[in-house]
Amino acid sequence: MSATGVATGDKGLKADALGFTSNLVIGVASTAPAYSLAATLGFIVIVSGVGVHAPAVLIVSFVPILLVSLGYRYLNKADPDAGTSFAWTTRAFGPWVGWINGWTIFVADVIVMASLSVVAATYTYDLFNWDHGASSTGWLIVGAVVWIAVMTWICYRGIELSAGTQVVLLGAEIVILAVFAVVALVKAYDGNALAGAVHISGSWFNPLDMGFTPLVLGVLLGMFIYWGWDSGVAVNEESRDSAEGPGKAAVLSTILLLLIYVVVTTAAQAFAGTKFLGAPANQTDVLNALGGKVFGGGWDKFLIIAVLTSASASTQTTILPTARTTLSMAKWGAIPEVFGKIHPRYLTPTVSTIGMGVLSAIWTTLLLLFSPSQNVLNDSVTALGFSICFYYGFTGLACAWYFRRQLFKSVGAFLLAGLLPLVGGGLMAFIFIKSFIEDSKQVNAYSHPLLGIQVPIVIGIGSLLLGIPFMVLCAVKFREFFSRRTEVAPEGLLDKLP
Question: What pTM was estimated for this model as a whole?
């Protein structure tokens, strides 16, 4: 029990505060559906050989995500720890692998905060038609830092406030995207769409109608828009039915994201055609480019609101899992115990939450000051693919290995907790390697190389390597954690599977 008499878990977080719906909302909101589509769709359709097959690319991109989400479900069933991948890979593969996975989650979330907060600031200014603010580096920094501060404060003040905020923001976003899709499809078929409008064809959804290389290049982009659903699992210790609910919500959230992405992409493509979506002036912000043309008049503001709520919601739900990862690492004795402090009234991580906000604000400010053109910022988004594939991949592999003694007790156990997460981890490894090959080419970078190395590689691989000296320092200080032995899943957890 906490000082306020409220039930808490072993880390001091508020127990039984969230239901299944909140887990689901946090998972979906963390991916920022509207922002992700606005920033990625244009680049997918211009990949040579993709074109109208963008929906097929999004379907294929979903497959490794779904397989890894099964790993999250069953690992959470065995160990509902807020540290998620950190805790699970520590148990399965040992403290060194676990620590670097925790580090990877941390750096990925700090890196993406710059993009999310800048988009939130830009769309705030666009909403009020303040072009100067949207184009001024100084005002973008101010707006981004304010958004980070607001969302950090919400996360600090309590998990219920955080979840309630997500319901409002995601609700507005999904309603606007649904209306957009319906209006765009109606106009595509009644003759009121753009000149490049095309009717829907079954081939759009068939990856076999594409070449292998275009498909892979498209998937490298498509992976980014699914990232974030695991945030709903990171609040497992604050959830009712913590061993089952968050894991099930993780799997369902990926399916909902697939439906959102395919429906909106299909509608946008039918209304405008790929030439419009991939035009240089539109490809970095597809939804904003389509807003006035789909809705007409001043109604285009709705899509600005959709992307604004999307980016701001994801800013908040990026702080949540990061703070809980570092909280868990501190409670496990892997990093200084100060990161494990919990507010006695709000029952939220204090140092971890505030620290995440401060680091994110500093990173965002430095990134914009160093590159006002935002080229480095754009390359930092590309670089995220390495971190995503790294810890998602290890989580899929960890599931199969952790449950290895129970996998042959039933077909369901073998498939759901063994083979499928293992394949998901393998696919993540393949995407990691392919990303390295493609991101090593200047044509795929926005900025000039540093010392002959492309900026996405510098940020993506460099941030992972940066964790090694910190890990070594922690190994010297926290010897008890780094002397842990690997474990296997407790017996009986998979007995009820078919």
Answer: 0.92
